[in-house]
Amino acid sequence: MVEVVPHERFENVYWIRDEGEKILATRSLAPGVQVYGEKLYRMGSEEYRSWIPYRSKLAAAIMKNLKNMYIKPGCRVLYLGTATGTTSSHVSDIIGEKGVLYGVEFAARVMIQFKQNVSDKRPNIIPIFADARKPGTYSSIVGEVDVIYCDVAQPEQAKLFSDNARLMLKSGGHGFLAVKARSIDSVQEPEVVYRREVEILEKNGLKPVEVLSLEPYERDHVMVVLEYV
Question: What's the confidence (pLDDT) of residue 180?
Answer without folding.
Answer: 77
